[in-house]
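Extended Data, panel c. Modelled sequence:
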Amino acid sequence: MWTDERVAKWEQTGEKPSPVMVWTPQQTGAFLDFVAEDRLYAMWHLIAFRGLRRGEACGQPWSETNLDTHSLTVSSQLVQDGWEVEASDPKTDSGYRVVALDDDTVNVLKRHRERQDADRKEWGSAWVDTGHVFTQEDGSWLHPGKVTDLFERLVAASGLPPIRLHDLRHGAATLMLAADIDIKIVSDTLGHSDTRITRDIYQSVLPQVGKNAAEATAKLVPLQRKAEAEKAARKAAKAAKKNGKGNAKPKDKANAQAKAKKKAKRGKPKK
């Protein structure tokens, strides 16, 4: 994962610690903000949050995308054969899956569909009706290799530490694990055939997830000594604040006394 220390070293040397690197949630958010106006923003968003593979996103049809039920079914993909592109079944049997969509992702896809409808009208009879969610400007298939090239250019322009497009999918898994989503659900969402695959791939982020779980568990148990220590600390802070108000500076005291004497002198009756 791109921790602050690794980012600092990358900025100095330009070297990636590992071929596979994952953004933090903050870095993912910064990238999505940066590409908000990109024509394929919805694709980057979908991969970042739901973890579709590149070919699955490129080949996802509207007919298998149900925004009313907040879900999509992964049933095909576009793959490269050399530089040629062809439609294919998912990578494995477990690749056939239903992926739940959150409200924000549904709204992103709705806006994307509206934009695609506008493109369809603009192209008129030249529009290529592939029925895919993500297409080229004229409706034709996306080329997976060109999608990767575009992603890498956007990452470079954003100034963020480099990751591969497939690492954006890894980031989706990291987000789910950090949100305490059961690893079986994470595995099913990603299309893994076994949770052991998910554990093996994301074992580097699991310790942090485990620490978060431990912290959450510890907070459930009330400890008297801890409560007393916190109470004593609050009492000491309150006393220090009160003493600070009572200790006026010598100069302030002298000014106050002079003002009081002057006021008393004005108040004496004349003889």
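The first helix runs from residue 4 to 13. This feature is highlighted in the accompanying rendering.
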